[in-house]
């Protein structure tokens, strides 16, 4: 395929695969734990972190990772057994979004003296085709590390997700596992922001996981399916954006992920109706 002749497309596929693998893995447990709103909040925290980094002349990725992981741990610390309720998450989310506007204003009016807000546009909508070779390699490595960490803690995390009270009674460190998981969500959110942007991040994290849960009730099969669907969405989205240059890659990726989720829900609905009539 001619797509592979372009170095920036190969870098996008490399980075996108790692990012999607991490997003699919954490997304599966986020949906299972009913914590999708946490990912949405962290996507806006990513915007605030990037705006703060730009305002103070620091590497944008430093702001992304520090802000998302720190706020993820804060949310875990505020919640019972590491699971903060929607009121806590919403309060943190709104405050940090306002802080992001403050940093963006500071960047465009002071900052390095050259800020015009264009870099924050890349944070909001993604710039996967603009990644350097080093950034693509780092993104792929972090994505793989998040995936390996989620798989490694899969069984106790699943136990703590399905029945936290019994898991705690059996000696599972529920709070520690929940905090560690949210830190991984923060890493995945910071990574995914570079591919699809803070505003569209949720589609890459939640849609493949939702599709996987609609297709299978077996946890680890669902986890693998969520990762595969997320990676497939990134690859298909990049191919679509290449074939139709007017199509933004971030939109193409999220459109494929959303379509896969819709198809899975329709399949489950038809299967349920078919089973009811037999």
Instruction: Kindly estimate the percentage of residues that lie in beta strands according to DSSP.
Output: under 5%
The number of distinct helices, counting runs of at least 4 residues, comes to 12
Structural class: mainly alpha
Parts with pLDDT < 50 across at least 5 consecutive residues: none
Question: Largest sheet at a glance?
Answer: none
Helix content: over 70%
Distance between the termini: 46 Å
Rg, Cα atoms, Å: 19 Å
Overview of the molecule:
There is one protein chain. With 278 residues, the chain is mostly helical. Helices cover 80% and strands 0% of the residues. α2 runs parallel beside α4 (86-109). It is globular and about 60 Å long. The mean pLDDT is 85.
Write out key terms for the chains shown.
single chain; mainly alpha; 0% strand; globular
Brief overview, please?
The chain is an all-alpha fold and 278 residues long. The chain has twelve helices and no strands.
